[in-house]
UniProtKB/TrEMBL annotation:
Lineage of producing organism: Bacteria, Bacillati, Bacillota, Bacilli, Bacillales
Any one Pfam family match given in the protein's UniProt record, by short name: PrsW-protease
Example of a GO biological process term: proteolysis
The protein's name in its UniProt record: Protease PrsW
EC code: 3.4.-.-
GO CC aspect terms: plasma membrane
Membrane topology, from the record: Multi-pass membrane protein
């Protein structure tokens, strides 16, 4: 049990540390980050119940429905909702990069519980694969969600459009990720590696943009 927890938490801690210390100005308060992480972790249980109920009833069972609705839309919508409900109006959310930090915290909270459950059920031998693909993909979806929520909060125009993109882009990418896993059988790895490489490239680019392209962010936050 200890080894499973260690293997599940190690990639989460590594990614969260990387995101946290990449902020160029004052660091965010750890209690708020921890709270958003816990909220993300708690999402696993209602999501698992809803997905189980749909499976039992035989609803939305096609690969496309499973990938884009029961996985992509359901999971990313609830993360997005939690972000808007618990973080968006918080006074500590005072820089666009903070959106990335809290988006990743929510996503990694979810990924941590999901990862622990999977490793307990299937064995520690899957830990490296889980770290490279599901855990990091959740973090990358969180980067994109947080980036666009940051744009929504700190721009005086197109706020609703940025909030919509903060939902739709992670939903689409999450759905595509799951679709690759469920429909490409033995060749999935050849599609997933370039897919993840592109996601990481985009994620790093968004991190740099959030850090450097907002010189006057406090005018609206104040």
């Amino acid at each position: 049990m200890i080894s499973i927890l260690t293997l599940a938490l190690a990639p989460v801690a590594a990614i969260m540390t990387f995101i946290y210390f990449n902020k160029r100005i004052e660091l965010e308060p750890l209690p708020l980050i921890f709270r958003t992480f816990i909220l993300g972790a708690l999402l696993v249980f209602p999501i698992m119940f809803i997905q189980y109920a749909f499976n039992v009833e035989g609803l939305l069972q096609s690969p496309y429905s499973q990938s884009f609705i029961l996985a992509g839309l359901l999971e990313e919508f609830l993360k997005w909702f939690i972000f808007l409900f618990a973080v968006y109006q918080h006074r500590e959310f005072d820089h666009p990069y903070d959106g990335i930090i809290y988006g990743v915290a929510i996503s990694l909270g979810f990924a941590t519980v999901e990862n622990v459950i999977y490793l307990l059920a299937n064995g520690a031998q899957y830990a490296w694969g889980r770290a490279i693909f599901p855990v990091s993909s959740h973090a990358l979806f969180g980067i994109l969600m947080g980036f666009y929520i940051g744009k929504a909060k700190f721009n005086t125009y197109h706020n609703k459009m940025w909030l919509l993109l903060a939902l739709l882009i992670p939903v689409g990418l999450h759905g595509l990720y799951d679709l690759i896993l469920t429909t490409t059988a033995s060749v999935w790895i050849y599609l997933m590696i370039p897919f993840m490489a592109v996601l990481w490239y985009i994620g790093i680019r968004k991190i740099n943009l959030a850090n450097h392209n907002y010189p006057n962010v406090h005018t609206k936050a104040e």
